[in-house]
Amino acid sequence: MIIGLTGGIASGKSLLAQYLNDWGFPIVDADVIAREVVEPGKPVYKQLQSFFGEEIFHGDGTLDRKALGRIVFSDQEKRDQLNQMMHPAINEEMMRQKEDLIAQGHKTLVFDIPLLVENGRTNIVDYVLLAYVEEDVQLKRLMERDRSSEEEALSRIRSQMPLEKKRNHADAIVDNSGHRKTSKEQLAHILAEWGIDVNV
């Protein structure tokens, strides 16, 4: 069984991933893989170099994520181009890790994919699990976490699909608006409904 874990910024997705990992379910993390596929020498690195030029790299040759972010955040066409370069490589590596984990005998694993719904990838998982919080909680936590202004935090939240909209695509939802213990209990209850027992 493959659980597709998704959410939004400051929605508590990492907390749920940690609980699942603690319970012995391996996590295939799209964000980690996204960082790996752009390392120097990798095919995607060369594609980025030829399309965006040297301005998106540090002096030591590593990718300057902030510089790249500034370019694609304000240019939809370039953002689409970046996605076309990144997604096939990320998907290929996720599938490779999945096959390895299944070969090792794991029956249940987690695909941690922030943009699972936006990228229309819900078909690659058996269940979609959404980390959810109310927008006011999301805003407060993001401002505290990143020490950002309300305007900056709202801009980042609104650049993503609203969590309210993602609810429609989820098989189960953990509301992380309250205490961590409550989130853990919700998660254990959902897993039990899917035939997986864990010790809370």
Task: Describe, in plain words, how this protein is organized in 3D.
The model has no long low-confidence stretch (mean pLDDT 93). The chain has nine helices and five strands, in the order E-H-E-H-H-H-H-E-E-H-H-H-E-H. The chain folds into two domains: 119 residues, Rossmann fold; 74 residues, no CATH class. Helix 6 packs across helix 7. With 200 residues, the protein is α/β, with parallel strands linked by helices. This is Dephospho-CoA kinase. Pathway: Cofactor biosynthesis; coenzyme A biosynthesis; CoA from (R)-pantothenate: step 5/5. It comes from Geomicrobium halophilum.
Helix content: 40-55%
Radius of gyration: 18 Å
Fourth CATH level, the homologous superfamily of the largest domain: P-loop containing nucleotide triphosphate hydrolases
Q: Averaging pLDDT over every residue, what do you get? A: 93
How is the quaternary structure best described?
single chain
Q: What overall form do the CA principal axes indicate?
A: globular
Read across the widest sheet, the strand sequence of neighbours is: 2-3-1-4-5
The overall number of domains is 2
- Unreliable parts: none
User: In DSSP terms, counting alpha (H) and pi (I) runs of 4 or more, how many helices?
Assistant: 9
